[in-house]
Amino acid sequence: MAIVTCKLLFSLYSFLFLIIVSLTKAQPNFLYNICVDKGNYTTNSTYENNLNTLLSNLTSNTEINYGFYNFSHGQNNDKVNAIGLCRGDVKPDVCRSCLNDSRVLLPKLCPNQKEAIGWYDNCMLRYSNRSIFGIMEESPGFYMWNPYNASEVDQFNQVLGNLMTKLMEKAASSDSRRKFATDNDTDVNFQPIYGLVQCTPDLSFQDCSDCLEDAISEIPNCCNNKKGGRVIKPSCNIRFESYLFYDPTPIIDPEKISPPPQGKNKSSHTTIAIVVSIVVAVVVVALLSFICIYSMRSKPKINLEEVEQDHDDIEIEESLQFNFDTIQVATNNFSDANKLGQGGFGIVYQGELSTGQVIAVKRLSKGSGQGDSEFKNEVLLLAKLQHRNLVRLLGFCLEGKERILIYEFVPNKSLDYFLFDPLKRSQLEWERRYKIIQGIVRGLLYLHEDSRLRIIHRDLKASNILLDNNMNPKISDFGMARLLLVDQTQVNTNKVVGTYGYMAPEYAMFGQFSIKSDVFSFGILVLEITSGLKVCGDLHEQSMEDLLSFVWRNWREGTITNIIDPSLNNDSRNEIMRCIHIGLLCVQENEVERPTMATIALMLSSYSVSLPLPLEPVSFIGGRTRSISISDTQI
Ligand SMILES: *[C@@H]1O[C@H](CO)[C@@H](O)[C@H](O)[C@H]1NC(C)=O
Ligand SMILES: *[C@@H]1O[C@H](CO)[C@@H](O)[C@H](O)[C@H]1NC(C)=O
Ligand SMILES: *[C@@H]1O[C@H](CO)[C@@H](O)[C@H](O)[C@H]1NC(C)=O
Ligand SMILES: *[C@@H]1O[C@H](CO)[C@@H](O)[C@H](O)[C@H]1NC(C)=O
Ligand SMILES: *[C@@H]1O[C@H](CO)[C@@H](O)[C@H](O)[C@H]1NC(C)=O
Ligand SMILES: *[C@@H]1O[C@H](CO)[C@@H](O)[C@H](O)[C@H]1NC(C)=O
Ligand SMILES: *[C@@H]1O[C@H](CO)[C@@H](O)[C@H](O)[C@H]1NC(C)=O
Ligand SMILES: *[C@@H]1O[C@H](CO)[C@@H](O)[C@H](O)[C@H]1NC(C)=O
Description:
By secondary structure, the chain is an alpha+beta fold. It folds into four domains: 31-128, 2-Layer Sandwich (Killer Toxin P4, Chain A), CATH 3.30.430; 142-242, Killer Toxin P4, Chain A, CATH 3.30.430.20; 319-408, 2-Layer Sandwich (Phosphorylase Kinase, domain 1); 415-627, Transferase(Phosphotransferase), domain 1.
């Protein structure tokens, strides 16, 4: 009875936690945001207080206006200035809620940063200790584009150019309350083009036209020949699409709108409903807690949380543990016909459970030094990591000397199978490779930062990137990743596990691994993906030049096209070059110079992030790391 009650209680806690999480995590992500590194404030400083006051006043200010807010608060060095701008066609309540989301989210994303800026579809918020009112600023900014190409490009561009110029003049010359214009036109195929331009209304006619003119002139950089695109800057922004994306109803003067009374009632009803359910839930939980604690009175000093934790883990452990017999049947007694390959840690088989579920079974090489409980702990830990770019661990089997890991089955083999095969590599056109790179970034970012545990992979390489039916990448074999204490970023180990060529120098030489040693391996992987060459192996055997020296030599000499896999077509040169650039930044000898996965994600998602110039990467052939013998198959 007590156990059932406690189980129920546990579910209720989880449920309440979910409610709280969903209530507090209400803000959607920005389209883009930048923490401008122009100085930091300290926690509890006057600047922070001023910023908080200013931001909380931003939307509590109920005065109806034209979608532009400019405020400042504080004195001298602690003065904070903020500008909020809503898109011109957005209704006041939508505007307010968009700015409200921004003001909650932006300081969270840019903690202690004096200057920051964030953009949603419907609004922009920026703040700084500098004066920003009435000043035209064109950076930082970003581009977005519609993936589809326009047809009849020349005519399309002509119509688009005329439309944008017309809108620019209209917006720049509107009054100082709202500098905004939208309109549409049709190209030769009678396809509509919808355009929108906007300046912050604090700009002069000249500043607004200058800003918009520059933005329009950047369309070829941003979204050449695309059906839609946006150029977005702090002081102005433009957008065009082949579909109607703005509210075309003429803008009514805000003075003439009376606030809809219905909305308020509705929301207060919902509030009441939520409050009532929370109160009921709290009462039930309190009651259950009482019963639960009461029934455990005989065991004093037990921390309720610990009990739940144990309970939880034991339950997980039970559901994750498979019988050896089951696995034997599933893999047809580990038959050679079922063998998928030999991984670093043992042989991998394909199997099918009696439920019909297809699995991958990794039978670990015997004699690994790990104890049973250590093994179980690791499995429990890894099974908790779930991300669409990670191969999912479904369970384990531990019987006698047998240690087996059961994974989801990923149908399409691994990246190296395609990438390094002269025929199959043509199936990986650039768009696909780029998506694979992005997926690996997401998976690693999750391992490094977003999961509850900080996991360092330590053996990232092309054969550890599996591809599913849609060629989405899934990182596998993070089994040797170790749990790091949260504030620990680096660990010394005498067990070096990894693969020659992918290992960062500090790891290969001193056994020091960190998220930055994974970044190094990622850099190698990106260079392999862009060049189609293996980091160690068949490359330029006669000259003994390794991948890094080869890439670096061509980079330095400006012959970057030599690096690019000849089976890739020419259209995406810029994107490929940018990836090579990022790859080089990841393989810098000094780990401090290597970007984090979060920065890499940003570099890939926005072209407005400028990349530092890479220095000469580590040279492995130089000798230092060559003398160390490294085993690929130890744990
Ligand atoms: C803003 O803060 C930075 C760094 O603290 C400082 O260098 C700069 O002078 C400040 N600007 C103004 C206008 O106070
Ligand atoms: C502000 O803090 C960030 C992170 O804490 C740091 O990277 C940056 O260098 C600091 N900027 C200045 C100007 O001190
Ligand atoms: C910030 O100030 C408040 C009171 O002014 C104080 O209670 C709190 O401990 C301070 N926090 C830090 C981190 O200094
Ligand atoms: C906050 O807004 C209210 C109402 O608009 C105004 O009276 C008050 O002065 C503002 N406070 C600050 C610090 O700007
Ligand atoms: C805000 O904008 C108005 C004009 O729209 C201007 O008169 C006022 O000085 C600005 N306030 C601040 C604090 O910059
Ligand atoms: C602003 O956002 C906060 C936090 O998400 C929320 O509690 C508050 O009700 C919102 N205010 C308005 C006016 O929407
Ligand atoms: C757009 O055109 C480029 C060549 O200019 C082509 O490579 C690409 O596949 C096209 N994209 C779409 C979505 O049609
Ligand atoms: C398109 O433009 C025409 C004339 O310029 C206008 O009458 C029509 O309402 C516009 N349509 C939209 C959806 O903006």
